[in-house]
Fold this sequence. Notes:
Structural class: alpha+beta
Amino acid sequence: xxxxxxxxxxxxxxxxxxxxxxxxxxxxxxxxxxxxxxxxxxxxxxxxxxxxxxxxxxxxxxxxxxxxxxxxxxxxxxxxxxxxxxxxxxxxxxxxxxxxxxxxxxxxxxxxxxxxxxxxxxxxxxxxxxxxxxxxxxxxxxxxxxxxxxxxxxxxxxxxxxxxxxxxxxxxxxxxxxxxxxxxxxxxxxxxxxxxxxxxxxxxxxxxxxxxxxxxxxxxxxxxxxxxxxxxxxxxxxxxxxxxxxxxxxxxxxxxxxxxxxxxxxxxxxxxxxxxxxxxxxxxxxxxxxxx
Length: 292
């Protein structure tokens, strides 16, 4: 059977919904940060959704969710991007939960993936999505996503630090060894905007067992930070707006500065913003969604 390419039928889905996740607007509701565009392809059966996910080839730069909504409170989903299957897409799950809950026919939904089940709750315009059904969060005025927290440690091995030229002058390097996520805290935002300089560091890090690279700058006075996240090893040079990096980044900033509530802006080509909150065993994320 031939591999399917994206076209007018959008992978033979019954319908496709496009949602921007972690976008933001000003007081007059004019869009200022577009956020991450998520494609949600809806199918009439689980078998059709799984077949499409297994036999489709994504050729654009976006994440695509292949979804079967079994009932108003239950959905099965697989994600793909240009590199292949994605185990878990945080912004994609957030978008799907928002889409299912905004109809207000149910107050809780379960999103079933191959690797985990996500629980989403809603009250009015609010939604909560958790990777751990035992986590009980109070309803708030905005959507929130709970993901497990991990605690990166500073790289102290000289052999690893020596790989990155100019590291001591630029900032501090951290790693979560289990996942292969590296985080570089920069001393200034000007360096964060230097794509050529960051690209050189990514090339140097490629000799390590790396899964993703986050460069960030944190301002303790405003409890806010800016970041960029690069995943050229997994189908996208730079991620647009990701929630998944916060399971490492929010924990790291909390451990260093004691900041429980953190405002983040991702400085990518499709910039977005979110609020992250440290909650010991998990990180709570919130942000805006809008149908595109």
